[in-house]
Amino acid sequence: MRNNRFSVISVFIFLAFGLCFIASSCTQRYGLHYKELKYPKLGEVEIPKVEKATLANGMQLFLLEDPELPLINMFAMIRSGSIYEPTDKIGLASITGTVMRTGGTTTKTGDEIDEELERIAASVKTGIGLNAGYASMSVLKEDIDTGLAILGDVLMNPAFREDKIELAKIRHRSAIARRNDSVSQIGRREFSKLIYGPESVYTRHTEYATIDNITRDDLLSFHKKFYHPNNIILSVWGDFDTKEMIKKIKKAFKGWEKADMELPMVPEVKYQFRPTVNLIRKEDINQTSVYLGHIGGIMSDPDYFALVVMNEILGGGFTGRMFKNIRSRMGLAYSVNCIYTCNFDFPGAFYVACHTKSEATVRAIRLMMEEVKKMTENEVTDEELNLAKESYLNSFVFNFDTKDEIIRRLMTYEYFGYPADFLEKTKENVEKVNQKDILRIARKHLKPDKMQIIAVGRPKDFDEPLSVLGPVREIDITIPAPTK
Amino acid sequence: MKHAMRRFCGVFNCMLLFFAMAVVAPTLAEAQDLAEFEKRMTEFTLDNGLKFLVLERHEAPVVSFHTYADVGAVDEVKGITGLAHLFEHMAFKGTKTIGTRDYEAEARAMAKMDEAFLAMKAERRKGNGADKTRLEELQKQFKEAQEQAQKYLVHDEYEEVLTQAGSVGFNAYTSRDATQYIVSLPSNKVELWMSLESERFLNPVLREFYKERDVVMEERRMMENSPYGRLREEFQAIAYKAHPYGEPVIGHMSDVRTITRGEAEAFFKKYYGLSNLTIAIVGDVDPQEIRRLAELYFAHIPSGPKPEPVETVEPPQRGERRVIVEDPSQPRVLIGYHQLSVNHPDSAVFEAIADIMGRGRTSRLSKSLVKEKKIAVSTRTRRSWNKYPGLFTFSAVPAKGRTNQECEEAIYAEIERLKTEPVSPEELAKAKTRARASLIRQLASNDGLAAQMTFYEVITGDWRNLFNQLDKIEQVTAEDIQRAAKKYFTSKNRTVGVIETTPTEN
Questions:
Q1: pLDDT (tens digit per residue) in B474-506
Q2: Which of A21, A124, A416, A479 has its Cβ near the most Cβ atoms within 10 Å?
Q3: Closest listed residue to residue A451, CA positions, set A289, A282, A322, A296
């Protein structure tokens, strides 16, 4: 064996020498350098058609057949959210969303439902977030009737049993007790309060007192207010026949009637640009968590498309300016995040965040601010623009590589009132973005001189006092004690 | 663990991520069995030992690549802990032809940096006797050489090429057992991947080494600043006294600080031979074309023998080990028992135990600690899915006002029950059904499949075990569970770590 191989190698060497002689160069290549490559045209992306239907009771359906695996999944969005809960009962939406499932229905306890589902490796989950309620179901296809019946029952007839309300409250109280254990959680939370204001529906959070105020009646009425079929969009994807599935859904939600309803008004975000410097002391850490930024934007803004490209250039992945400079060139942080966030329905935030050793805190902040400033001073280079756009356009196909993202995206557009082709529109517009657009929108949307800074860390180890950046406000994050 | 940065996957998190993916195994529903899979699978091994697993999945014109290097933190020795991970970071820094304007000149500048760094190391070893002026002079030389080297850099070329090509999920992970490089691309970019990946293993250049080491030190600090990260490191350290599983993947700070570029290069030579790599390619590809390109780009790369496995064996414990982490954060409890490797027949039994005890709302721990006693807000079990014997762990997050001790006792009560009475047929059936469903749910993603297939191929010797594992779970009996619980879950074989809330001193 060994001998054999030896002789093969000898022949090879002989041949190689011979070739070199002829070519008078020994730098033989195997395959091509990437710069020499030409790529074939990418195969067509077949975008599957999502069927839409509306039931007599007003429930909207999105359906997508996908026979690849023997599974069926559902995901529902319900117009609701913690933005609608009263100030003295923060946590109500979350507890309602949880106990809707754990507290069982009028005919079954939550524990019975758990047993029934886990026996068939299925799941039904519910929750209520900031600006939507959610429900999901996943089953092996042979168990669709069981799964769907439970999903319907949970949405229509939750019993909100007291023992599970108590359990949800224990969970909330424990989360309150633990909320200052994680440095990045502190940074995120307190930065968000700086942007939207501590009382804002977008940032306020639970306290022991607000949890104690919540009663079963509150849950019942919160559910009653929002959970109506005409307030729900349900999407289904997996191994089924669409007609059959619509019949099954009708059956599962039989008897659930449409109701007149009006969503309460939500206060607008009023932001005033201002520079601030804020400190939160955390003495047990050797690294500072830094956040800086200001208010962000909304996706319906015509500037959104250029902002997408700006985000790539400033904060995108491994190749954005922040990552390259703060991490790769300076070695100051493991992760640097920078994004001008645009939300569907209320302004997002613009922020830059990193963790850096205490001794580099002020230096890192200055460098991060400098990068933001540069964005507003000069046009980006051809190479940067090209990289950002190509990256967006070449990876576009990944928007369609799984069925669940296709259907859930359409559903989300519908929920927030965006056109079904919003993604395609975004692509078309991203293609048109040029350097001037980016400089214009950077100047309009980024305010490097009016950023709010927050540092969570151990100030006595900082390279310079934070006060070199401006007057420092110390934020006390002591958790208010329970009253009882 | 990961280069990543990107996205906040910390060292431990990444391991969790990896293991979560590796979980499992169920077996198949009608349409999704091994036979059906085999039809879409092509396997081949190049003469240099590099193995390819190619799975056709034509759902969309995209493809995922997963390079699994059979080297991890377990292959390090004292003094160079963290090197496998640091090398993983370095593997993004380019090659002799990518990332540089003039490799020869750059190499000369880098050699000067190394020289200054080694001289500084030697001087510092003198402790109080170190010559301050000489250290400053060396530091100056180091900086000058660094600036010199920077001049030849083409910044982040490797990353930019992939980003521009439309990559997603570009990343890498280091765990105790493995180092993995992943990326997904539009399927017309297969040859680009071949070109870049073959260069990476033929001619890597560890440029910006000392900068990247600073990044890793920040990554380590992130772990240190997470209460659970602190607990986990202490816990792992006392659970092992001989086997390298006791060392942190990210390495000790003093090791990371003093590792040299030469050590990283030596590590590469020893562990990154092509015979030590396995590559899975899953997606919209033509296996014949993959094979042609693989031959063209990889076959010429020479490879040494496969490195020796770790021969250190963890001796049996003589009694329970316990660490109390005094920390300002809220309580946590973590209990581990030494278990055998994933290739031991009992691993299927542990898979069933992990499910029955700790997964889902109807698991025994959740029912007892969360729902009934209300002493914990969450509970969890993890069976080891490792190359060498790992730990089976139980953990709980105590509810506000409740203690580690209450949770620990309640967990022991459930373990006792596992030993004294057989699990019910319903519980066992549920675990088996869930194993099967869990496998099916993992078959829908290219990158998930690629990760699973390489894991089973390298660690168990055959990717088919992804499916066969299910049959093994199917055969687990209530007696097996009772026997294993009695054998492994003993106080002598136990390690306990807790966070006890202690005020910080300023």
A1: 999 999 999 999 999 999 999 999 999 998 765
A2: A124
A3: A296
- pTM to 2 decimals? 0.92
Q: For the domain B46-83+167-198+212-250+264-303, what is the CATH code?
A: 3.30.830.10
CB proximity B40 to A under 8 Å: no
Cβ separation of A319 and B60 shorter than 8 Å? no
State the Cα–Cα distance between residues A128 and A318, nearest whole angstrom: 34
State pLDDT tens for residues A133-156: 999 999 999 999 999 999 999 999
> Which residues of chain B does A69 touch, with a Cβ-Cβ cutoff of 8 Å?
29, 31-32, 440-441, 443-444
Model confidence over B117-172: pLDDT tens digits?
Answer: 999 999 999 999 999 999 999 999 999 999 999 999 998 899 999 999 999 999 99
Q: Which residues of A65-78 are buried (b: 16+ CB within 10 A; e: fewer)?
A: bbeebbbbbbbbbb
- What is the Cα–Cα distance from A140 to A122, expressed in whole angstroms? 7
| Residues A294-302, mean pLDDT to the nearest whole number | 97
**Cβ A329–B211 below 8 Å, yes or no?**
yes
Q: Can you list the domains of chain A with their CATH numbers?
A: 51-252 (3.30.830.10), 276-413+426-474 (3.30.830.10)
Q: Cβ separation of B187 and A43 shorter than 8 Å?
A: yes
For B95, which residue in chain A has the nearest alpha carbon? Answer: A33
Decide if A292 contacts A284 (C-beta within 8 A): no
Find chain A residues with C-beta within 8 A of B210's C-beta. Answer: 331
> If you ran DSSP here, which 8-state letter would residue B170 be given?
E
- Residue A355: list chain B partners with CB under 8 A: 218, 221-222, 225
What distance in Å separates the CA atoms of residue B94 and residue A82, rounded to the nearest whole number? 48
Structure tokens at B194: 């071949």
A167 vs B371: CB contact, 8 Å cut-off?
Answer: yes
User: Which residue bears the tokens 């302004």?
Assistant: A347
